Amino acid sequence: MNRKIKVGLGTDAWLPTLDGVCTATKYYADIINQEYGEAVVITPKNPNAEDYKFPYQIYRYKSLFTFGEGYPVGWPFKEEFANDVINMNCDILHSHCPIATSYFFRRINRKRRIPVVLTYHTKYEYDFEARVPSKLLKARAYGMTLNNIKSADEVWVTSDGTSESLRKMGYEGDYIVMPNGCDLPIAAISDNERASIRRKHHIPHGVPILLFVGRMIWYKNTKLIFDACRMLQNAGKDYRLLMVGMGPDEAAMKKYVSRIGIADKVVFTEQITDRHELQIYYNASDLLVFPSLFDTNGLVVREAAASATPALLVAGSCAAEGIEDCETGFLCEENAHSIYTQIQKLIENKPLLERVGLKAQNDIYISWEDAVRMAYERYQVVIDKFNSTPHGEYKY
What we know:
- There is one protein chain.
- The chain is of the alpha/beta class.
- It contains 14 helices and 15 strands.
- The protein has helices at residues 20-36, 79-86, 100-111, 124-131, 135-150, 163-168, 191-201, 222-234, 250-259, 275-284, 299-306, 336-346, 350-363, 368-387; strands at residues 5-10, 37-44, 57-61, 63-67, 71-74, 92-95, 116-120, 154-157, 176-177, 209-213, 240-244, 266-270, 287-290, 311-314, 330-332.
- The strands form three sheets. The chain has a seven-stranded parallel β-sheet, with helices on both faces. A six-stranded parallel β-sheet has the order 12-11-10-13-14-15, with helices on both faces. Strands 4-5 form a two-stranded antiparallel sheet.
- A hairpin with a 3-residue loop joins strand 4 and strand 5.
- Helix 8 packs across helix 12 (336-346).
């Protein structure tokens, strides 16, 4: 199965907006364009876009405005936009978001049927419950999203646990688990590079470094990390917590750590876009602390594994899927005391941290090259199935 294909990759946000979905879409585009044919990224307009930097086409349709950290609100209703995509003659469309992008692909399929895959990356019910003000609007948001999901010829999730979110949306159909990859290579980081993190943030030699990487948003259970760190401080344990990322709750988090008296132990680094620099942060840290129940794949867990840094995760979470306690990672309960208890034991057992970190590097790491190769092989199954099946009037 070596035939070249043209893939239209749809995402509600593209660079310079940066998040997990955008990152995944970018690696799909990069690797498809290099190895498997041609990629076209289909996304709303962004006033700060620098699309000339990419070696493949970025097709921008209308956006109404941007919000948050530069997220555009797409407006895909103009017939011209659908015709533009149809004229690209894509073999398959791959939506990475079940909202504006998937609705756009539904409009395209009303004019010409093209096979569509949807990757359901994140737990959208969190955003609906937090940001949609009324029950009526929530019901409409859930209904529209469900119809978008059902319109795909095949639904992919990045972990088995993500299916719970699909079911909450009302989706009862089948799905395929298609994991995301990791772009950080398995690489040796020098002692001087590791020491540079301590110098930069004035962390004395021997003080354990805890790490969180992700959006600064409360529903990633960051408050539990802070409360566990307060318990560490009360127990007389020295440490530093590096918070890598940015997000809408960052200011509130800084106020909270100040209020509970651990501001001198917590460093907010802002977003680190240089991937090698980020890998140094992983490698310099003793433990990634990631108690999020929101994340569907836990990409940061694999990024940490690339640097042989183990992760502390909530048992039963999607991020902990495939993790064996004290073998390829560490598991805790979803409360601050459990996180504190585990951290306290682990920072005093450096050999265990190193052994589990190396086991994670060997057993759970998956590159983006491997992930996209699996997706490419599945694309061809979807295309062949689509082409061998008669299609009546499009119902969505």
